TrEMBL record, chains A, B:
<feature type="binding site">
    <location>
        <position position="28"/>
    </location>
    <ligand>
        <name>Mg(2+) 3</name>
    </ligand>
</feature>
<comment type="function">
    <text>Catalyzes the ATP-dependent phosphorylation of thiamine-monophosphate (TMP) to form thiamine-pyrophosphate (TPP), the active form of vitamin B1.</text>
</comment>
<feature type="binding site">
    <location>
        <position position="43"/>
    </location>
    <ligand>
        <name>Mg(2+) 4</name>
    </ligand>
</feature>
<dbReference type="GO" id="GO:0009030">
    <property type="term" value="F:thiamine-phosphate kinase activity"/>
</dbReference>
<feature type="domain" description="PurM-like N-terminal">
    <location>
        <begin position="26"/>
        <end position="136"/>
    </location>
</feature>
<feature type="binding site">
    <location>
        <position position="212"/>
    </location>
    <ligand>
        <name>Mg(2+) 5</name>
    </ligand>
</feature>
<keyword id="KW-0547">Nucleotide-binding</keyword>
<dbReference type="InterPro" id="IPR036676">
    <property type="entry name" value="PurM-like_C_sf"/>
</dbReference>
<protein>
    <recommendedName>
        <fullName>Thiamine-monophosphate kinase</fullName>
        <ecNumber>2.7.4.16</ecNumber>
    </recommendedName>
</protein>
<dbReference type="InterPro" id="IPR016188">
    <property type="entry name" value="PurM-like_N"/>
</dbReference>
<dbReference type="GO" id="GO:0009229">
    <property type="term" value="P:thiamine diphosphate biosynthetic process"/>
</dbReference>
<dbReference type="GO" id="GO:0005524">
    <property type="term" value="F:ATP binding"/>
</dbReference>
<feature type="binding site">
    <location>
        <position position="28"/>
    </location>
    <ligand>
        <name>Mg(2+) 4</name>
    </ligand>
</feature>
<feature type="binding site">
    <location>
        <position position="45"/>
    </location>
    <ligand>
        <name>Mg(2+) 1</name>
    </ligand>
</feature>
<feature type="domain" description="PurM-like C-terminal">
    <location>
        <begin position="148"/>
        <end position="299"/>
    </location>
</feature>
<dbReference type="InterPro" id="IPR010918">
    <property type="entry name" value="PurM-like_C_dom"/>
</dbReference>
<keyword id="KW-0808">Transferase</keyword>
Length: 341, 341
């Protein structure tokens, strides 16, 4: 058995276990069917060693995270996961490492009924590129361009924890105990908010997942929708910031909460009149959410893909400009910097 | 404008140009609809610098080839291209290089009505991972496990030319003129047999594209289908081998034709009673095809992904074992070896 055959077999499952998968991996292409009335939601993410993960990362955690960040994109569309493909470049073939990678990835896939339906393997610097497919009724999809003036701005879970985990991993900060463990887990094994995304489909207007930082990702919504936002920084720190981050020096805490990447929470907008319905949807999905601001008028973007972080106004609870402490860094996560930097 | 925004803009197109694309790139996921009665065919391929292309490759040719090898997988399913995603790792951002890459890729995409609907960009060793989506009626799809005893074995176009192009590029062989140019073009800018694949859907039984070499790729069909094949080597050399390859020393010519990768022709099986229909389909697709053998009984494979090159018997026109000259190398294209080796 050659190296390729080993790799294919490690990831192989018999077709038939997942509804909608007519033909799984092993052919030139997989065959997928979507439900009547639904369209297919498709998203790709690539993880490169030294940028998105350290060389000594546990393979099981890497397999989990590579799929989790892709499922997070489906969550941010309100889509139900259906299947995914994996393209894998490996410097060498280590069977135990590969089996652990496959276990981390396929365990999360099974939890979401999401079948691995194909891929490619090659020698090369360690790189994983995944493409996920989900389904959603197109009128219910959570599009970035759907935020409306008068919407509330909401965020799920807690922000800044993954950035704290990165600081601990890099040795920039020292901390021990359960909070340090939670921060590392948020970075290494994030939970995609798949149930929340589906619960919000048809209820929320716009959504994005927080992969590059709150300002950057909310900015994408604002630019696409041609609006601006006012954020209540005190509400954000009170209701959507974990204690371990809130207790850091203020400049660091705000940098992590506003611009820390990799949390994979959802930021979304919904009509102010539907606050109770949003809370009920979050309760059904067993996911905490917090209302942290509102959508206000803004200029149309000069390009559909323009950045929009500058459209976010940071206010205190009285509606005055929030006094940012010195040393706050609000640039989003830079994928052209290395995680090991 | 940051580097990411530049990259996104270079590849960006407005949604709406391609039927079936509800929402194109720029959101967390694209939204795709398939036609009633069709399922979605999905395939991924990854290209790594130094393995699949040389560092000095022309970016336009690289963009073309990265999409062509993925479209070739759709062709081998009999599917109509619909859309694709691109995950791109780049060591640095060079706008002119990027624009040329995008032009090579999007020109081929436009020729097939195949929209770029999403992707990801990161810093890293130059790597392209594409996932393509097509549609096909599931009963008409050209599956690898559908070859039947009594089928003919066919191949499109000509084999071995891309491997000759690689030998010229590496300086292993010297040749000039139109034939050398054609060999280089076959390697650098292959033509995916998309029209032929669709013309064969519902007519041929099984198909695969010849990316790893004829024996390896026909072997996948044979193992999946639990059959074996007899190939008429003289017919193969006469009807599916370009003069530039046929005129090489016999051991080299046979190595290139039987095991040279990267040609992206189709190998397929069809009932012997449908020979005229196959020729008519090929004529409609303006693609030459040649009948080079037949499917015979074989053992079920011990694993659905097992290799099957050993199931191919090489015969002369009288049905006797073909006398292979010394020095023939029949191992398939090894992606763990470098293209620059």
């Amino acid at each position: 058995m050659g190296e390729f055959e080993l790799i294919r077999r490690v990831f192989w499952r018999a077709t038939g276990a997942t509804p909608g998968v007519w033909l799984g991996n092993g052919d030139d292409a997989a065959l997928l069917a979507s439900s009547p009335g639904c369209v297919l939601a498709v998203s790709s993410d690539m993880l490169v060693q030294g940028r998105h993960f350290l060389p000594d990362v546990e393979p099981q955690a890497l397999g989990h995270k590579a799929l989790a960040v892709n499922l997070s994109d489906l969550a941010a569309m309100g889509a139900r996961p259906l299947a995914f493909t994996l393209a894998l470049a490996l410097p060498r073939v280590d069977e135990a490492w590969l089996r652990a990678l496959a276990e981390g990835m396929l365990t999360l896939a099974d939890a979401h009924g999401c079948a691995l339906v194909g891929g490619d393997t090659t020698a090369g610097p360690l790189t994983l590129a995944l493409t996920v497919f989900g389904e959603v009724a197109p009128q219910r999809a959570l599009r970035r361009d759907a935020a409306r003036v008068g919407d509330d701005v909401w965020v799920s879970g807690a922000l800044g924890l993954a950035r704290l985990g990165l600081a601990l991993l890099r040795g920039e900060l020292a901390m021990s105990g359960a909070q340090a463990e939670a921060a590392r887990a948020q970075l290494l094994r994030p939970t995609p908010r798949v149930a929340l995304g589906q619960a919000l489909a048809g209820l929320a207007h716009a959504a994005a997942d927080v992969s590059d930082g709150l300002l950057a990702d909310l900015g994408h919504i604002l630019a696409s929708s041609g609006v601006a936002a006012e954020l209540d920084v005190e509400a954000l720190l009170r209701e959507a910031t974990p204690p371990a981050v809130r207790d850091l020096p203020p400049a660091l805490a705000l940098s992590f909460v506003l611009a820390g990447g990799d949390d994979y929470e959802l930021v979304f907008t919904a009509p102010a009149a539907r606050r109770d319905a949003v809370q009920a949807a979050a309760a059904r999905a067993a996911t905490p959410v917090a209302c942290i601001g509102r959508i206000v008028p803004g200029e149309p973007a000069e390009h559909p893909l323009a950045d929009g972080a500058g459209r976010v106004r940071l206010l205190d609870t009285q509606g005055r400009p929030y006094p940012l402490p010195e040393g706050v860094r609000l640039a989003g996560f830079d994928h052209f910097a290395t995680i090991a930097a």
